[in-house]
Amino acid sequence: MTHIATKRPSYLFAALGLWLAAALSPAIAETHPGQDQLVSEVAKETGKNPRTLNALLDGAKKQQSILDAISRPAEGKAWKDYRPIFITDKRINDGIAFYREHRDLVERIGRQYGVAPEYIVAIVGVETFYGRNTGKYKVLDALVTLGLYYPPRATFFREQLKVLLSLPDTQLGGPLDTLTGSYAGAQGWGQFMPSSIRDFGVDQDGDGHIDLHDSLPDILGSVANYFAKHGWVTGAPVVARAQPDAAARPISVKDSKPQWPLEQLMAWGYAPLQAMDPGLPSSLQTLEGPNGSEYWFTFQNFYVITRYNRSPLYALAVHQLAQAIAAGVHEQEASR
């Protein structure tokens, strides 16, 4: 019997060649460390196209200036040096002008959320000088840099990057790769991080989008909602000056959360300089002022401001700016 050799179809050899080439060639390198895993998580949780997500991340750049900036935050200063940054005649006067120009909107939002309107204005005053300085960095660059190249806080910033990539278009305020903000990736007049946009941003103007860059109702409404959701108490105090006696007990606190009734701090040697409810939940901050140590009773609303920025210096600056704005508005109206 004659044996006839069987001829293999040429396409089988071609397919085998392609398989071998793929198996032996190195995998395509990810642009940023951890990018593949991040994209996989976002795609799985949101259904977004991995190719689109990779294209966004491929276009982001690590920025050394961001790594430099996060290593020297203003909150590392003493109160005597920090306060003059934010409590200036111009910031106060511009805040008064902003309040008066947008009074109906600011006060309507304040009533809706139960938050004193001067504090809503003071937040955008401290954060971005009433919208003038919202940040020059691409938000995507900032969060890629800090989330994938900054080990000390990579967990936090990677999560913010993940949230940013997961947000629907209605919460972005524009194409994701065009958004700009601070070196930390905060956006808009109120400098919201992605998780804050997701959790506290509101569509105050009812147009179907949350726009923290160009919609003043959304901007102010989101700040007020942030305070309300974190427990702002309508009409309650924020801080009060305290005067220690010679035998006052030294007090150190880890954060600004109220820990004792005011009467307990009074019993430990700290007297309020104004009449106050002795049962108010309170804490105490000792700050380095221009004339020596300053002692401040702090209350629930002070703690709420520190949910926006954990620094007690920040919270006190917001409070003092708010008080100056409210006083200026009242004074101008009284003189009319």
UniProtKB/TrEMBL annotation:
SUPFAM superfamilies: Lysozyme-like. Residues 37-323 form the Transglycosylase SLT domain. Keywords: Signal. The keyword Aminoacyl-tRNA synthetase does not apply. It comes from the Bacteria. InterPro entries: Lysozyme-like_dom_sf, Lytic_transglycosylase_MltB, MltB-like, SLT_2. PANTHER family: MEMBRANE-BOUND LYTIC MUREIN TRANSGLYCOSYLASE B (PTHR30163:SF9). This is Lytic murein transglycosylase B. It comes from Dyella koreensis. The gene is mltB.
